[in-house]
Design brief:
heterodimer, A: alpha/beta, ten-stranded mixed β-sheet, 9 helices, 20 strands, B: Rossmann fold, 12 strands, globular, binds adenosine-5'-triphosphate, binds magnesium ion
């Protein structure tokens, strides 16, 4: 029996889901959801005795009575405006507490061959297209949260790109939590399929409206077929009182290229799992990550890169900054299978502790079963470099500004890999605002 | 007393050691007046860089005796950044690489910190860029250096040029240049020397630490000092450097002993 077994509250919610699945739900989906509900009921919430949850106790989530929402809460559109990325020209899908809100969204001018819809709309229409895509990368057995997402699934985004379809503008998925009493939990599901040679940039962006402190439990399934190029931004900018668990599953075919930017600024308790499967030769993934933990924030990121085919490449760079009583965890696993020769895998995790009470654990894990491979990894946890500080001060820059410059620079080395300038600039600003020592940064050049 | 007679830097019996370590500076006396150029030479490990770092205010060194006055103030009362803003700038023997901080950003922050200190408004970006471009040209540096991270991946010579670029932008009253000539090719040495000569003026002073007479043929010093085992054992004019070039330190060290 798990220490975080389901409370009466969640057991009851699950029972309602199982018994109340709508009759019009396709049989395949009803089956998957029932199975997931059963799995979640059996497993309960993860327990810190499980290796994968060693550093993150989700008890605060398990013991809170989060509720699901069945109606659209009223939202003022200018409340959303401040959450966006200034100057970003993008298709836009807005979700509030996990529910798609067409009135705030803009999907005009999509090119032929691109299907971008809410999951609810898709299930009400062309549901059969989703059968091979939904829940096939994200298995219920992956985690209780993935199972819960399937069981409680109500909405999300579906992005399907036909062969050779290139979206010039990025797709901005803005998922916001609203203030509610009791606080809500939502289970958005994001499905992406980029067919052969397709190209797209997707920004999966989480934020909160004033006063929100809900729990977002998301699952993303992303397939990049042969030669497809997908840039995936995962921006977690929740309120500091919010809870977030997100699992991303990526499957890549021959010569596909995926870039992942994962930035964590907010949240009280946050867990991310990024699972990458490089299944065919020539597939390449670049993983860039940044987390900032302050106050009493806890952010845990696990990445797993699975080189299951020869001639595959992964480049991973994660950085963490701890201040206040913040707690960060990075665990990066790289698995090179027997036969995955000529794998080229590099992983680096660098972390900066700005306060004696902050803590960051970093744990690279390389498992290599092929002999002709190039794999490198490194992990550091340290403080600001005294010599650099002195050098800046020796130029007349005061100690506080010098610290701010160095911390900001440390983070910016990850952010500067972002191709979308409006997103990068906006994140830089939010980051600077969260770094008391950085003050107002006026970044030029 | 006229301005010319007032020492800009007055070092009196300065003694210092690495924190809780063995003494390195064992009683240094030196006076630098506006308009002067001083060269400090001496064997490896004699304490030249330590002297520079103590004057710059680096942590990790402990002053165990003596005084240093800079423009009439007790230098040790000032934080490193205050020393810089008051016009005392140190050119590092080993310039520090700072990943993620663009050269132009450092220059601008430093420039504005100094202006703010003098009660002047911050420079606008356009004016500032114009100024920096001029100085870049003097140093024969490509504009791309502005957008690279400070010293990261710079060759040894490029780092030294970059130090002088900062000097030209910040216009120190007293420049302390620690082996700015080391690692420079013949052409670069000329460029760097010209840069340093641009800093020369009746109201500025320069202290050069160097191992080579070659630099001093480009930048003529008014005084040459020999630092050995933490003490200045001999001072003279530029001919002293020529003498050292011919016969090395041994004779002078023995003579002083
Ligand atoms: N931080 C330190 N820790 C330990 N020893 C130090 C430290 N800094 C300086 N020293 C020692 O003090 C002595 C003087 O060093 P310094 O760098 O000042 O010499 P220098 O005259 O500049 O030599 P060089 O010509 O090689 O640059 C050396 O023996 C050096 O090893
Ligand atoms: Mg030295």
């Amino acid at each position: 029996m798990s220490a975080n077994a389901l409370s009466q509250h969640y057991a009851e919610q699950l029972r309602q889901v199982r018994d109340g699945l709508p009759a019009e739900l396709p049989e395949w989906l009803a089956g998957r959801r029932r199975g997931a509900a059963q799995r979640f009921a059996d497993a309960g919430f993860p327990d810190p005795r499980q290796e994968e949850w060693k550093y993150t106790n989700v008890r605060p989530i398990a013991t809170k009575p989060f509720a699901t929402t069945a109606t659209d809460v009223p939202v003022a559109s200018d409340a959303l405006a401040g959450l966006g990325f200034e100057g970003l020209d993008a298709y836009r899908m807005v979700f509030v507490d996990g529910r798609f809100r067409a009135e705030f969204s803009d999907l005009n001018d999509l090119p032929e061959g691109a299907t971008v819809q809410s999951l609810s709309a898709m299930l009400g229409g062309d549901a059969a297209r989703l059968e091979p895509l939904l829940g096939t990368l994200a298995h219920d057995r992956f985690s209780s949260f993935a199972a819960a997402n399937m069981a409680f699934m109500s909405d999300g985004a579906v992005i399907l790109l036909g062969k050779g379809v290139r979206l010039e503008r990025p797709i901005h998925l803005l998922l916001v939590g609203a203030a509610g009493s009791p606080a809500t939990w939502s289970h958005p599901r994001i499905l992406v399929q980029a067919a052969e040679g397709a190209e797209v940039t997707i920004i999966e962006h989480y934020a909160d409206l004033e006063g929100a402190s809900g729990f977002t439990n998301t699952v993303t399934e992303l397939r990049a077929e042969a030669g497809a190029q997908v840039r995936h931004y995962l921006v977690q900018d929740h309120a500091d009182s919010a809870y977030h668990v997100g699992s991303v599953f990526v499957q890549q075919r021959r010569d596909s290229r995926v870039t992942s930017h994962n930035v964590n600024l907010g949240g009280r308790l946050v867990r991310h799992d990024l699972n990458i499967d490089l299944t065919e030769p020539g597939s390449e993934i670049e993983l860039n990550g940044l987390f900032l933990v302050g106050g009493r924030q806890h952010v845990d990121t696990h990445t797993r890169v699975h080189h299951s085919s020869p001639h595959t490449t992964s480049r991973e760079q994660y950085r963490g900054i701890g201040q206040g009583h913040g707690r960060g965890v990075f665990k990066g696993r790289v698995l090179v299978e027997r036969g995955a020769q000529k794998t080229d895998a590099q992983q680096h995790s660098a972390n900066l502790l700005l306060s004696p009470n902050a803590e960051i654990d970093t744990k690279p894990e390389l498992e290599i079963y092929a002999d002709d491979v190039k794999c490198a990894h490194g992990a550091t946890v340290g403080q600001l470099d005294e010599t650099s500080l002195y050098y800046l001060r020796s130029r007349g820059i005061d100690a506080e500004s010098a610290r701010g410059m160095l911390v900001f620079a440390f983070a910016d080395e990850v952010l500067e890999r972002m191709e979308l300038a409006p997103v990068r600039t906006s994140i830089e600003r939010r980051l600077a605002a969260r770094l008391p020592e950085a003050g107002a940064m006026d970044v030029i050049g | 007393m006229t301005q010319e007679n007032t020492a800009m830097l007055k070092i009196n019996n300065l003694q210092a050691r690495v924190e809780n370590g063995t003494p390195i500076l064992k009683g240094i006396d030196l006076e630098v007046r506006p308009g002067e150029v001083h060269a400090i030479m001496g064997p490896n490990g004699s304490g030249k860089s330590t002297l520079c770092q103590v004057l710059g205010g680096r942590d990790g060194y402990e002053v165990t005796g003596g005084t240093v006055e800079y423009q009439g103030k007790d230098l040790f009362e000032l934080e490193p950044e205050e020393r810089a803003r008051e016009g005392l700038l140190l050119g590092f023997q080993y310039p520090v690489e700072i990943p993620g901080v663009k050269n132009i950003y450092l220059l601008k922050e430093a420039y504005n910190a100094q202006r703010k200190h003098r009660g002047e408004p911050e420079a606008d970006t356009f004016q500032f860029l114009k100024l920096v471009r001029e100085k870049l040209q003097m140093m024969q540096m490509d504009e791309s250096f502005l957008h690279r991270a400070v010293n990261v991946g710079f060759s040894g010579g490029e780092k030294k040029r970059n130090e002088i670029l900062q000097m030209l932008v910040l216009e120190p009253k007293l420049a302390l240049l620690d082996e700015t000539d080391s690692g420079l090719d013949i052409d670069a040495l000329k460029v760097v020397s010209e840069g340093v000569n641009k800093l020369r003026s009746p109201d500025r002073a320069i202290v050069l630490v160097t191992h080579y007479q070659r630099l001093l043929s480009h930048i003529e010093p008014d005084f040459v000092h020999v630092l050995s085992a933490g003490r200045i054992i001999k001072s003279g004019d530029k001919t002293l450097a020529q003498e050292l070039e011919r016969s090395g330190y041994q004779g002078i060290i023995e003579e002083a002993a």
